[in-house]
Design a protein that fits this description.
With 470 residues, the protein is mainly alpha-helical. The protein contains 20 helices and twelve strands. Helix 5 (183-193) crosses helix 6 (206-219) and helix 19 packs across helix 20 (454-465). Bound molecules: glutamic acid.
């Protein structure tokens, strides 16, 4: 029987969920979920100087927005410190690690000589093979014994076999002189203890893999499947940085991108399934694999993100969109909708969601339903409400009074009214938009009438007809 897949996302709590981290989380999530496995979350909070609980909350919040629910409890790396120490001692007992009594000065002197002789400055301690009987009563660190000669092969699911000369590995510290464990040890112990079978992470950790391998070998533990994914670059081909715009997932939430679109876009960022650009969560789960991850860095492209988000909005259910928009307003710190506004928004959604790429775009188009009478026309709309237009509107109103409120009838009435005046419906559209929405650009007049209903439509037309020129 195959071992069940266990993946993990192991962010350092930096105060926000980096967009690259969000993609790493998503890849791990999809890989596990597509295989009936587990997706675990570990916060790498060993740097206590910089650690704040708010930094962890920001990551949890970002993951929750993206719908990347993890299994089990959140693991705090810091809380596992005693276990990390225990493993360092086990390595000592096995002879895979040793106590090193070298002083800072001695290490510096080693480096200087190595530099002068053109040798590698990676530290190999003279204590690696010392007889414990010769150990002084002095402070020490615990170091792993780097392999002598030979090569380490990392069988990476994305990068292929990565071969590292063991001469490039140092006698890495496992426990500092105060007995505290280093990060590199913590990662390996935690991954092993959490039963992680697949580690999908940024390729900035590829060099660490060779060093981490020493610990796996020392303990005789199975090495997980590693998949080091290329980092995300900006459109200029450089590593994604603040210069390229928003870096935190929550910034995209506040810009009003739908989470489903964000997930789809991030999944496509560095992974492909044929030519498929748009896919559902279920498809992503079914299709995602390590073979589809590209070796070259993916470029973040806002236009593509918008395009995919637009497709997700168009495909979404109206009630779900309403809820998402309400959450967006909350996340962005904007005023919440009254229930009347939210109901109106949902009724109008069918005509708002076409071609909208973000929630603010939907809300902008929804202005006609969110604003109550009296409608105050904006400047561009005002010119459609001159005396002549107001006259037309007041003539039109009685024709709508008893019309059945269906698209067909409304089209018949308005087209008939225009024809009787030897004009086209297009000529009526400006005044109607101005009267119904106070704007020159709006959803279709028929959609607005249908969404507003007869009474509200007639009231707005009367208001406009009886108004005065600005
Ligand atoms: N905490 C590391 C980071 O945020 C990830 C370590 C790992 O995935 O092994 O970059």
């Amino acid at each position: 029987m195959n071992t069940p897949v266990v993946t993990r996302f192991a962010p350092s709590p930096t105060g926000f969920l980096h967009i690259g981290g969000a993609r790493t989380a998503l890849f791990n999530y999809l890989y596990a979920r597509g295989r009936g496995g587990k997706f675990l979350l570990r916060i790498e909070d060993t740097d206590r100087v910089r650690y704040t609980p708010a930094a962890t909350d920001a990551i949890l919040q970002g993951l929750s927005w993206l719908g990347l629910a993890h299994d089990g409890e959140v693991v705090s790396q810091h809380d596992q410190a005693p276990r990390h120490v225990e493993v360092a001692h086990a390595l000592l007992e096995k002879g895979a690690a040793f106590k090193c009594f070298a002083t800072q000065e001695e290490i510096e002197a080693f480096r200087e000589t190595a530099r002068a002789e053109g040798r590698s400055t990676l530290y190999r301690s003279p204590w690696r093979d010392a007889d414990p009987a010769t150990h002084p009563d002095a402070p020490f660190v615990v170091r792993i014994k780097a392999p002598d000669g030979g090569q380490t092969v990392i069988r990476d699911a994305v990068q292929g076999d990565v071969i590292i000369d063991n001469a490039q590995l140092d006698d890495m510290i496992l426990l500092r002189s105060d007995g505290s464990p280093v990060y590199m040890l913590a990662v390996v112990v935690d991954d092993h203890d959490m039963g992680v079978t697949h580690v999908i992470r940024g390729d900035d950790h590829l060099n660490n893999a060779a060093r981490q391998m020493m610990i796996y070998h020392g303990m005789g533990w199975d090495v997980p499947v590693w998949a080091h994914i290329p980092l995300i670059h900006g459109a200029d081909g450089k590593k994604l940085s603040k210069r390229h715009g928003a870096l935190g997932a929550e910034e995209y939430q506040k810009m009003g991108f739908p989470a489903a679109g964000m997930r789809n876009y991030l999944t496509r960022l560095g992974w492909s399934h044929g030519d498929d650009e748009f896919f559902t969560d279920a498809q992503a789960r079914d299709w995602f694999d390590l073979d589809g991850i590209r070796k070259s860095p993916a470029q973040f492209d806002l236009k593509k993100l918008e395009n995919i988000c637009g497709q997700h909005i168009a495909a979404s259910d109206d009630a779900a969109l309403r809820q998402e928009i309400e959450s967006y307003l909350d996340a962005a710190g904007l005023a919440e909708l009254t229930s009347e506004q939210a109901n109106g928004l949902e009724r109008a959604m069918y005509c708002l969601k076409e071609r909208a790429k973000t929630f603010p775009e939907i809300l902008d188009k929804a202005e006609f339903i969110l604003t109550a009478r009296p409608i105050v026309p904006e400047e561009k709309a005002q010119k459609h409400l001159d005396a002549v237009s107001r006259g037309i509107l007041s003539e039109l109103t009685p024709h709508l009074q008893d019309a059945s409120w269906s698209r067909e009838t409304l089209e018949e009435v308005l087209n008939g009214f225009a024809a009787a005046r030897d004009t086209k419906f297009g000529k009526l559209a400006g005044p109607l938009r101005a009267a119904l929405a106070g704007r020159a650009v709006t959803p279709s007049v028929f959609d607005m009438m249908l969404v507003l209903g007869r009474d509200e439509t007639l009231a707005r037309l009367r208001d406009a007809a009886s108004g005065t020129e600005a």
